[in-house]
Amino acid sequence: MKQFAALWVLCIALSACGNDPGKKDEPQSTEAGTAERPKDYYKRFAGTVAGMPVVVNIEVYNNRVHAEYYYEKYGKPVELNDWEDTVKNDYDWHLTEYEAGKQEDNSPHWQVRMEGNTMKGKWISRDKTKTYDIALEETYPEGSYKFDLRYNADSIKFKPSIEASATSTWQILQSKDAGTEGTFIDAVIKARLGCDSLKQNDIVQCLLAQDKSYFGAYKQDMAELDSEMLASPTANYSSDVNIWICYNDNGIVGINQFSSSYSGGAHGMYQSLYTVMDARNQEVFKLDDVLKPVDSMAMSTVLADKVRETYKLQPGANLSEVLFEDKVMPTKNFMLTSRGILFCYGPYEIAAYAMGEVKLFVPYTEVRTMLQPAFIKRMGL
To answer: Which residues of the chain are in CATH 3.90.640.20 domains?
Structure first.
């Protein structure tokens, strides 16, 4: 099965995704609203696709585009990526939708153009028989937040005379809100990146220190290899970390810390780690804040049906047709939207590597009796 994330890991391992491994890009911070479009940025858009209201969170950096959107009526997150190398310039984009359980080469596409604070274009079905208008505008209603985006890429060779190298790239977001809510968001992101325990006040300096440690460990690994192994592609290591916004409304910010790495072997590894922050109340949502603990088995039944729905299995079919076992339990790795909860299972967690990440979306309407009363009140359900 062709999976976006697996392709990304392979891309990083073989070519650092187009980055010049000998070039170091300084960390960047950009402000929206300047005359010239910033090179790296985050934006929140709202508008319509096919006349239906949607919200789009988008990150642009290193000449690539990543976005996630959802229809307000349904709330199910859908990723958008530019992995076909069809970003023509800073303004015209050809993006591919990605959902777990679907072949990426048969997915719908967006052909859009950025003009000022608007995005307009067409949604094109997978068979190219249907097209719908896309009309979006950058907007930050009360309860949403603006962010600066910083990107950095660095690499080293094991030795000047040997091609073996290690590459590290990272992309982070920092809140532009100088108040307590923005401070809370930044503190949580800092902790998720492992920078809260390193006595580093500045997150950029912390990540640069992590890079230094990573490159030092790489040289130690290479020192143990013979010349034949050093000439192999498996001697090229890579590490990539991204912070992507999935939800930004109602005083709640949901992020995906997507990481991928390669350190030798048959293939790299990757994972999405979700964090949902209630910035308004200065809390990070835990699963027990959302679901009543006694209902985990009932939720397992719901999730089993979502597996069958996602992977086109017959009703009542054994889950072992696609998973390791015939059951699936709720995971603490989840994302919230206004309409439902997304559970994410990483490679090898409940299915084979070739299956990619297993993501199961459950609308609140299907599990309302399982939700915590305080959560129902907080979300306005």
So the answer is: 287-379
